Structures are given as C-alpha cells and as structure tokens.
Amino acid sequence: MSNSRIAAVDVGNDALKANFGKMESELYIPNVIARDIEDRPVIGIEELDDKDPIDNLHIRVHSPALKENNAIYRVGNLATKATNSTELDPGSSKSEEDQTLVMMFASLALDSVTNGEFKSVKNDVLEANYTLGTGLPLREVKEGKDVGYRSKLLGSVHQVEFLVTPKYQGKKVNIKFDEVKVYPEGFAAFVNLVMDNDLNIINKDLIDKQILIQDIGGLSTDIAVIRNRNVDDDKAQGFNLGVSESLEAIREEIYTKHGVELDSRREVVDIITRKNNRHHIMVKGSRTSVHDITDRILLELAKKEYRYLRNVWQRNSQTEICYFVGGGSAVLKDYLKSLNNSLDGFNIEFFEDENESIWMMANAYYKLVSDFIRKNKKEKKDEKQEVSSSK
Ligand SMILES: Nc1ncnc2c1ncn2[C@@H]1O[C@H](COP(=O)(O)OP(=O)(O)OP(=O)(O)O)[C@@H](O)[C@H]1O
Ligand SMILES: [Mg+2]
Predict the structure, then answer these.
(1) Which H or E run includes 179?
(2) What is the DSSP letter of 81?
(3) Could you report the per-residue pLDDT of 257-282, keeping only the tens digit for each?
C-alpha cells in the first residue's frame, strides 16, 4: 500500500486551518470561493510565477461528492477580489455545502504539490493518499450528518486541477482517502485542552471536571458541555452568531465616518487586537481614534455572547470553568472579561496566544487522527502475532 499522509483539516466558516504530515506544514486559507464561468485570462507567465500559489488558487474540481461537478473556482484570497465570491451563510450546514469540500480539496491539493511525498504516475498527475481527521459542528453530528459526509469523502477519488496558479499550472492531483475521521468540534477542543500530541493527559486537574467550551467563530458560536470526559450531546448548544458580522459593521462604519476603506475583516481584527496603536487608524495622515465605533459594536456582540454563556451555565450549574476558544474569543476577550467582572463573575478562561485559540480544532484533529493511526497499527501488529502464534 502506498504511504498515507496525515491531514487534519478544520474547515472553519471564516478560514480553513490545516496541519499535514508530521506537522511540518500547515495552511491557513480564508473560506471564500468564487465560481468562474470560463478560464481566467492567462496573464504573463513570468509575472504569474513571481506570485504565491496560496494567493492565486484557481482550480477545477472533479468529484462525485460535489453537487456541481467539474466547476472552476477561485479559492481564498484570489476569490476575495472577485465580485461573485461566496462565504458561507449562517445557518447553512457545513456537511452539505460544496464550499466545504472545495476548500478542503484545494488545501489537500496544495499540500500535495508542495510536500514532495507523493509520486506522479503520469506526467503532471499526482496520486495523493491521505488519512483525514476533520470535524463538524456538534449540531450536525447530533443530526447524524457526519455519516453521510464521511462516506462522500471516502467513497471516491477527488481530482483537483490547477489552472491559472503560479508554479502548479496544469498539475492534477487525485486525492484518495484511506480513512476519514469526523469529530464533533466541541469534543476536539476538549481533547486539545487536556492531552498532548501522544494523547497523554497533560491536564489532570481538568479532565474529570465538568467544563464548558465556548467556541466563538466567524459565523457561529458553539458551547460544548464536557462531563465524564465526554461531550454531553444533549446539553451542547449552537448559535448562528459569530464575529464576522460585527467586523463587517465596524469596517462599514469606519468608511462612512472617516472615508477610509479597510481591505478586509482581518484588518479590522488587527486594529482591535494589535499591541500598539490599538483602536486607531490613519486618516489623511493623522492618527485617528475609532474606539467609539469598535467599542460600541463589540460590546453589543459581547453582551449577546455573554447571554449564551449565562444560559448554558444556568442549565449546567455544576460547571467549574468555561474556556473561550476560536478567533472570536480573541477579539472579544477584554469585553467579555469586563462584563463578567461586573455581572456574574463566572470562572472563565481565555488563551494568551490568539493563535492557540484559532488553531485549537486543527491541532485537536491532528492529535486524534495520529492516535487513531497508532492504535490501528498496533491492532494490525497484534493480529499478525495472533495469527502466527496460532499456526
Ligand atoms: N489572530 C487572528 N488571526 C486571524 N483571525 C483572527 C485573529 N484573531 C481574531 N480573528 C478573527 O476571528 C474570527 C473567527 O476566526 P475562527 O478561525 O475561529 O473562525 P472559524 O473557525 O473559521 O469560524 P466558525 O467557527 O464559525 O466555523 C474571524 O473573523 C477572524 O477574523
Ligand atoms: Mg471554528
């Protein structure tokens, strides 16, 4: 059997995060795609080759798992510039959207052509075998959608063809999955909190406590209840609210009030979270405060998020601590803390490093899927030994 490369992929509503191989490579791609009706006009190849492939993902995707087979997409940063780009709607199901698969396949194809682990059988066609760990929101797992999602991925070969992408133009990748594990997102966060890469328990204190994990993402908020080392399916709650809308609102208001057009929500995040010049922008060369705008909009959102917490805590009164994860938690940290100080005084915890918040799921899937592989190998070895000893 050919070698299987590990892929741990978190297709977030806001951005895809993925770890590959022995954790030697990772990808972060904004979750934006745009359908192309025709091939993009080819620009000068020399000009193209100066560019970074990840900012110029232009692909055709062939897969029976898709509703729209053989369509051409711009993916990630390249799609952001298109007028017809689509981001996922709140309330949509990750497991049922082509967008989820297109993002996932694009990331795997990009990893395939960069890592050098796979051999091409024919010119320019790579055969890429992966063992995949990924996840779905608790709500979808509760509805049993993980089963269909997994078999869609496992059941066939998914081909990605690079079109007008620097360095990889014309290359095709045939993606096959040797195994697909789909984990509920809240559970994954818990695993990441209490276990290291070898799934040794690193947080003995926490493991038998009842805890909440509030994951504030781009478009959704999930609160998982962990009890007896497991996610309590019935208690978990999902809400169709994340920070993206508020970031967009801040961007719009800065434009209306100051005439400054920020490029992206990411830029808004930077203004809110950076160490120096926080809540300030340059307007015609003068340093200008936008604190009034950011404060009002973020506080409003923080209040809603706090209400969710209060609600879930009330119904799980024996909870000892709530961890805030996801990029939204990094953005709302100060607001949530000060609300909590003046209101209920719950025992809540944030991560110092915002990257830890954002990469929580992708890192957890990595731990879980590598553990699965280890156990699998061991079982096979044990079986072999049994067979040979019974001879
Ligand atoms: N350091 C950071 N880098 C990138 N994004 C950040 C950072 N800090 C905060 N954010 C913002 O946090 C938000 C949520 O990011 P996150 O990656 O957790 O969402 P997601 O997992 O893609 O979405 P969801 O959980 O709804 O599926 C984004 O809007 C992002 O702009
Ligand atoms: Mg997320």
Answers:
(1) strand 172-184
(2) T
(3) 999 998 788 889 999 989 899 999 99
Strand partners, 214: 223, 324
pLDDT digit string (tens) for 356-377?
889 999 999 999 999 999 888 8
Residue 260 contacts residue 267 (beta carbons within 8 Å): no
Of 92, 88, 117, the C-alpha closest to 20 is 117
User: Which residue among 358, 360, 361, 363 is best mutated to probe the pocket of ligand 1, counting the most ligand atoms within 8 A of its Cβ?
Assistant: 358
Please give the C-alpha separations between residue 183 and each of 137, 144, 177, 188, 334, in angstroms, as whole numbers.
9, 12, 16, 7, 30
Question: Could you count the other beta carbons within 10 Å of the beta carbon of residue 35?
Answer: 16
CA–CA dist 162, 42 (Å, integer): 13
Which residue, by CA, sits nearest to atom 24 of ligand 1? 217
* Fold (CATH) for 5-187: Nucleotidyltransferase; domain 5 (3.30.420)
- pLDDT means over runs of 10, the chain (391 residues): 86 94 95 81 61 94 97 93 74 90 98 89 90 91 93 96 93 97 88 85 87 92 89 82 94 96 87 93 96 97 98 95 94 96 97 88 94 86 72 51
Q: Report the predicted TM-score, pTM, of the whole model to 2 decimal places.
A: 0.90
Among 92, 221, 269, 305, residue to substitute to test ligand 1 (most atoms within 8 Å of Cβ): 269
